[in-house]
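User: For my dataset I need records formatted as: sequence, then structure tokens, nothing else. Please produce one.
Assistant:
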Amino acid sequence: MSMSGHDIKLEVCVDSIASAFAAESGGASRVELCSALGEGGLTPTVGTLKTLKDSFTLPIYCMLRPRRGTDFLYNEEEMQAILTDMELLREHGADGFVFGALNPDRTIDANKCRQVMQQAGGLPVTFHRAFDLTDQKRMHEHVELLRELGFKRILSSGFRPSAAEGADCLAQLIAKHHRDIIIMPGAGIKVANLEEILTVSRCLEFHASAMDTASEDYTAPTTTRMECDVTMGKQDIDPYYGTNANVVRKMVTIANALSFH
């Protein structure tokens, strides 16, 4: 138990009902609900959210990302779709949202963020890893902007492919801004590198998919590969690895053993 009484919270990103329940039983604090994590996570269906809300006890933050791609440039129709999704997801029990929008020069699109904050109706909103595509030299200014816009959290790998590589940068962001906004490390966090990431960054929350592959001893995939020549998309060639409750439990145990604050 952390001496401060602030246990470091784990948010698990999930794209299936089974993964959500695995996150819950492993001791996660919250889930980020998406569809298609193979695409980096897209907006989840209302049916999935509504079904989960019947018996799920954790807060559910819903991704708002209407299509694949890492430009995070949305036109008016796409924004209309995002705001409509928000309204429907909110009506069916979303506890928060996850969003990010950029301008063509890779600065934060404050106007689109304002539209989303307005539609959120007071629910917490996280700015996702679009942050990692912005100019690292302006990172403090961008964090300030996101705080002023009303975001409660920023999900970041510290401008690197993984949070382990970006841990020093995340530590700088957290040291400077931790009183105003939660900086949540995410990307490539595994059981093996978690303790170092938590120790270096001194974060209060972190984000992981906690799949079988994030542990040293992962088991067989949770869906069987169809023995046929038909594929449903490029991700079909990979087995589907869902969230594993044991991996979640290991991560939560590591986080609970550390106390910095």
